[in-house]
Amino acid sequence: QVTSFLGVAVRSLCTSSPHEHPEHGRLVYKGNLAKAVLGVRFFSYSTSIFNLFMMPYIMLKTGIGFESLFIQAAFYGLIGFFTFVTPVTLHVLTKGYVIRLYYKDEMDTYTAITYNAILAEKATVFHQKDVKIPDITKMFTTFYAKTKSMLVNPTLFPNPQDYNHLMGYDKSLYFNLEEEEKEADER
């Protein structure tokens, strides 16, 4: 590939597609809210840390104090509650948001990239057979990979067949009536 940049020829030699990852495989999904999720969580963490360091200083400098030990404990408990609950709640709600999803054809495995609690990228590798679709649609879960809930937007898959294969929709529906009766009898 040759690109001209202000009259200078620049040659780029790349052996793999920009959507290929040597370890994870082919990129089949990219979440459009990855930067927003990272930004909101970072902002929440930073304000909580700021709050932890500044509240004692503000309390000492302003002279705000309560004579009752119970009222002091309740006040600091309330501030501490909001300092810790907001980041934890955001983590719980967004921990399954898939930033990128890769697929390896030869092994039929997926690698989902999510953010962990310290905002680093975390890779979860699973097979298509490990994908379970929840019986009841849940707000922050599209599917379960083994036991971990994952959230993807089906419309962001460039190739709808990739989504269909991930969810198992491309498998033929085959009902074995004898197996169904056997399972019903066992129940």
Uncertain residue segments = 1-17
Please, how many domains? 1
Q: Give the terminus-to-terminus CA distance.
A: 63 Å
E-strand count: 10
Tell me the strand percentage band.
15-25%
**Number of DSSP helical runs:** 4
Structural class: alpha+beta
Main sheet: which strands, in order across? 3-4-5-6-7
Radius of gyration: 25 Å
Biggest beta sheet summary: 5 strands, antiparallel
Mean pLDDT over the residues: 82
Q: What is the chain-wise order of helices and strands?
A: EEEEHHEEEEEEHH
From the spread of the alpha carbons, the general shape counts as elongated
Helicity, in percent?
25-40%
Protein name: TMM70 protein
Transmembrane segments: 36-58, 70-93
Keywords: Membrane, Transmembrane, Transmembrane helix
Organism: Grus americana (Whooping crane)
Summarize the structure.
The protein is of the alpha+beta class and 187 residues long.
Layout of SSEs?
Blueprint: E1 2-5, E2 8-11, E3 20-21, E4 25-30, H1 34-62, H2 69-94, E5 100-104, E6 109-115, E7 121-127, E8 131-132, E9 143-145, E10 148-150, H3 160-167, H4 177-186
Antiparallel strand pairs: 1-2, 3-4, 4-5, 5-6, 6-7, 8-9, 9-10
